[in-house]
## 1
Amino acid sequence: MTSPIGVTAILLAGARPIPDPLARAAGVAVKPLVPVAGQAMISYPARVLADHPAIARVVVLTQAPELFAADPQTAWIAEHPKILFETSGNGIASSLLALMDRADQTFPLLMTTADHVLLDAAMIDQFVDEAAGADIAVAMVERRTLLARYPQSRRTWLKFRDGWWSGANIFWFGSAKARPVIALWQDVEQDRKKGWKILAAFGPLALIGAVLRILTLRGGIARIGRRFGLEARLVAMHQAEACIDADKPDDVVLIEGILAGR
């Protein structure tokens, strides 16, 4: 399949209310400015996204755009003609909805995070090719793919009939049909006590299937999509590095080793 041209990439570069341990240890204001192998971590995914031919523009969502413009290591991001900053709201979902509702915004959207330091063009190629045509897609890595390359890496795994899966922090919103799912996500962000209502919205079969491990992840995602009247798709990433983000000091050490070998 040929990758669609004109994708808007959304790069999440916000800060949580609680100070980030990596940022505090590095003496920087926000986590995306934490140095990894001599560069602010956000520089890696920002450059890969800006250089990719399928990406028409990159929108950096953050509460404090001025921090990146003022930092010598990230000033280039603020000056890049393909990149623009948008001030994010109280949560990711609400900020995403506001962006989707703008008159000048077109689909599809690809969303990733500033700590996705190992993101590369091959990952974008695979994800965009396999997500194209879906209303929502999510990138995941199966445990055997990661452990075959990096047995020392520790991730959070979801167990399904077709394996153990970890998120790769790459998401696809192919049409406005994705809006109700994001609105549901917004409800979770605003009131986590509504969790049982959110689970109920996905339907008892999907919930029971996940608990009893009788669903494949691919089939479960497709079924949830049908529940919302849209096409939802799993993209099983080929590269183990797709699920290694710079979240903990051990991650940074591993990532720097991988970068040194590239």
## 2
Amino acid sequence: MNVLFLCTGNACRSQMAEGFARHLASERVVVQSAGIEVHGQNERAVVAMDELGIDITPQASTQLTDAMLDEADLVVTVCGHADEQCPLLPPQTRKLHWPLEDPARATGTDDEIMAEFRRIRDEIRERVTELMELVSHGE
């Protein structure tokens, strides 16, 4: 099973989803993330994941390619822009949409912004955990 997490810039939400999926998935699951554009990794996303012992620094902010779409069994869009801009998928590829808010747009103090990153991180963790349970059972 090849799972692809897709967002606008592959900087926060899709990077966190990839990190959780890699951490939770069985060896039968290939996990990638990509963006419609490339914005580089968001340092706050790296910190939020590191707080849970998951290092996403080896992951690269990657632009979506046709090959990624062709290889994907499941594409999970994690923002509205990626959902709207997602190219036509091959007929055998399933698609899920998770309308997650962008923590990079949070405003306020550093503590308030990090609280938003943690909130989104925790929502992503819940969704990825459920998804990996379904995938491991062949659903």
## 3
Amino acid sequence: MPGEILDNQGKGEASWSWPPIHPEFRLFAAIGAGLCLVAALLGWETLAWPLGALTVGIVAFFRDPRRVTPTGDRFIVSPADGLVTLIQKVPPPRELTVDDGSGRPGLKDEPVTRVSIFMSVFDVHINRAPIGGTVRRVVYIPGKFVNADLDKASEENERQHVMIERGDGLVLCFTQIAGLVARRIVPFIKPGDMLASGQRVGLIRFGSRVDVYLPEGTEPRVIMGQKVTAGETILAEIGEQLQIEGIYQ
């Protein structure tokens, strides 16, 4: 049940169910189904079957499963499903450091830890808020559509920066990046909106990436090559700087 509190002591009820589908699927699924129907009526079975499979794949792409988000002031949860492909110290994007005229300061123009999460076409593409707070900036930037798995995608691709500020003044930013196949970033939020941790903030269609810029003095609790889940995986704990190693096996 949405909004129900569950814990590690057995509180609450959990059961498997088919994930809901986000309404964005309708147009694309209708096109696929229409082409499949035309091919079937014309007797082109070798084409109709792949088109039918494509339609099912489109519906699956827009699935929007419910998630259980850990609660706690120190937790930064993953904003995306996917694979951690880059962890680097980099300067934050200029759009997040310059004065935007709102009277609220942006990030310091100093290197921070960036965690990049690559979403393949098989991952859920609904993005979620890594922390709760107020949306201070949403900056859309048109650009290219190179492979989102490449480092240069952060500076060259179509992207959208989001800045969230908590009540205690903590600021966290993340960037939605379109990829080689992705062609549209669909926002669900705007500046001034109040968000809860794990709340849906948007989606990127057909393969993409999300960069998270961790606050100063915070290192990730995930490692390179790890699979993460939006709204559930704890990406980092604020103020923690532990080194974590893993074995690829």
